[in-house]
């Protein structure tokens, strides 16, 4: 190997640098849309082919470029947004480093078409490996269109490590959502394989949030606004009762630029202290407007990290402002007088006409012994756990005594050990094996709802629901999807109709498109999600029979010692360990 130092070729340097800026197809969308926003566009159209791997096209009606600028716009560190180093501390644009377009052109076959006048003729260049391969003219209005094809075609190692089509498209959707949320004054459209997914009209901030995140969000958010000499805060936070463990709906923008800040996120979390459990995550769409000279956005090429001069003060202002808004909400219910109808109650769970089945075999002269026995406290279990036990389980009796401890553990013994059993984890294992077994069955029970439930979701959430529709239908969840609405007609008998919305939210929260990192198969992933969702609602075991039944059921599982997340269900304490505590 030659140890002499040499200067790398420009082509190699560009490909290496592109790895920091362009990590996946969604990075291309982000950079191109940001350029369109900086150009003053009032309408931005995004076209995706094959989930972004084959082609990404972004068109705008912005200021456009003349031929001179078109021929140099893709060169490394070429930009119209900086003239000197001091301009870094007065940035109002999304881009400024002059790296994005150069990086895109180094790892894809790119066509850039643009016009800065209204004559109807555009210049275009086709670029490969940062060199112009073709230059010509075409018909077109003022603005710019960039088409990026065959991403990573010349960097096969990078293309090899891309995720599945659906996961990459989910990242594209996330970037589109962030950019469209921060600019409600711009019309956005998004199409994948010519299918229109988003058509966002110009409007106010709340309208854009509802359009992007789904109609169900409208009843869940409250406004927040504060203006100080250091920072102006505006946007919306979610009401405490609608929060969960998901981080999906966390959007923080500084000067309309989406950023990630664990420090400021902690300030928002602390604002809910005392209102929700510690494991619950806040949801918000917040905008911070600050003097550009007080922040540094030149931290990373992705431009999602920022540094503040007075970070501690901003932390305190955010926490105080959110606490104040939450206090106002708790005292005075939030009524939206913008509705056309007086004091309407908005709900994302719309009620459809009931579907009724008639039992033609019914006879009032039949004996009702069965009904009486089902009401007897001696032979039935009236709590959430009853549906997992069958008639054979009811006859099983645990040969050793058992008792409940703190409504969380069961204490019993085996021939040699004292056993401590985590109740919720035991149910998690039992439900998991039941659902996994039912998924493999040819036919399963389904309970029809008296009143079908309709829930509104965002287009990105609908994508996830569609990916698991067949499995859920096999498990008894019969539903149809119309645009962004899910109409649920039947559910698995083990669940209550009030749990339906949280089940679908759990599926979305755990992102079933990316299940490979969590489970060996999609069937296993869904079984875990449903089992976890059901077991979380188990509060306690009411009587001795329930305790005995749970023990028998868990010991009949294939893996009674560990829950599906590989956490211990049963803790064994031998007589030797007990004796050692008294020595």
Please tell me the overall pLDDT. 82
Count of all domains: 3
Principal-axis shape equals elongated
In which range does the helix fraction lie? 25-40%
CATH topology of the largest domain: Heat Shock Protein 90
Number of helices: 18
CATH architecture assignment of the largest domain: 2-Layer Sandwich
Beta-strand fraction estimate: 15-25%
Structure, described:
With 583 residues, this protein is α+β, with helices and mostly antiparallel strands. It folds into three domains: 10-203, Heat Shock Protein 90; 207-331, Ribosomal Protein S5, domain 2 (2-Layer Sandwich), CATH 3.30.230; 379-572, MutL, C-terminal domain, regulatory subdomain (Ribosomal Protein S8, Chain: A, domain 1), CATH 3.30.1370. It is built from 18 helices and 23 strands. The strands form five sheets. It has an eight-stranded mixed sheet. It has a five-stranded mixed sheet with strand order 9-10-13-11-12, with helices on both faces. A hairpin with a 2-residue loop joins strand 7 (187-192) and strand 8 (195-200). Helix 2 packs parallel to helix 6 and helix 8 (262-271) packs parallel to helix 9 (311-331). The model is unreliable at 331-348, 367-387 and 393-397 (pLDDT under 50).
Question: Would you summarize the structure shown here?
Answer:
This protein has 583 residues and is of the alpha+beta class. 32% of the residues lie in helices and 23% in strands.
